[in-house]
Amino acid sequence: MTIICIVAVALSLTTPAVVPASPAQLAAPYVPCPAVKPPVAPPRAPSPPPVGPADLAVGGESLATAGLSIPAAAPRAPAVTATSWLVADLDSGAVLGGCGPHERRTPASVQKMLLAAALMPHLDPTQVVEVTRADLQDLDPASSVMGVVPGGRYSIKSLWLGLLLKSGNDAANVLARVGGGTAGRQGGVQAMNDEAHRLGANQTHAATPSGLDGPGQYTSAYDLALIARATYARADFRRYVATRVAEIPAEPGRPGFSITHDNTLLDRYPGTLGGKTGFTDLARQTYVGVAERNGRRLAVTLLGAETAPLGSLGEAAALLNWGFALSPDASVGRLVGPDEKKPDRPVAQVKTDPHDPARTGRSMSWIAILGPGAVGTLAVLLLAGPVRRRAARAAAKPSSG
User: Fold this and answer.
1) Is 157 a catalytic residue?
2) How far apart are CA 182 and CA 162, in angstroms?
């Protein structure tokens, strides 16, 4: 036993150590984000919980910053009021740049995209469902709604259009209830959180299906890009979100009505494939959008923007222009897909220099202490174990004759 212990000690001194990385090791150098001071200071918001070092490193170490991350040779990023943002290539997954990409922020109605990612694969668009009073009783009349009424019957397709075109909080509640099965609306919210976990959206937690403020409800610019990539992979979502005007059919005793898309970039920014806006007093303005130019589809996500001077849509357009101006191979990281294996904890390996006399001397010191003969004896003992085990297995194996 003494000899085996000595071998273990000797091996530990000659093998490079692997130690957990500290936040300081993971964090990229801090560069302030180009910012515009809004004419009116936003109200103070509670500080979100900090992001752990493992989550900060997802997508690349250059993204592990609360500041700016852009390619070294890139032109200066536009100054915006958004407190965090990200531009990514939707097809390759390359992250072109970002500001505090993993920082937790309040989402507002862009959280509805997570509802679509979670439930659109599971709900039949032709199914007709009846709206209940409970679907509407907790909604502020001044909040954005599609216009459904208690007792009204609407197709799932119409509800998706109301959700994405008019940011209907009423449609969100109905879809979450139907998609949540026996657990009702809360089951739909749980499905959103399950989907966030599946996508690797580690800073995202849903408390409401609509994105109206709720306890502990957060997301990040990076997570929103993951969610956008999942939703834009679906032809039905792309069709819904690019619709300008939708007609909601009449039913007995109730007239039909029209809903118009509230994302004006569809008609003002060339190549826009659709997007989702959001606003609450706590979240400020938020936005997720996708545009295509010369065969490239770029997604832009931003959180915490102010109405002036550009507003979330103007800032999104400026960031898209900046992204399209970059070389197609420029990146600072990547969107990690749900099928990619990620380590539970990032590790930093202590590299050894074979020419470092101090390390070489320490590794060889046990040979000097034990002597060549002892080292040979140790090698025999180490090899003897596997030989004995193979012999035992051969003796125990039944005869095939």
Assistant:
1) no
2) 24
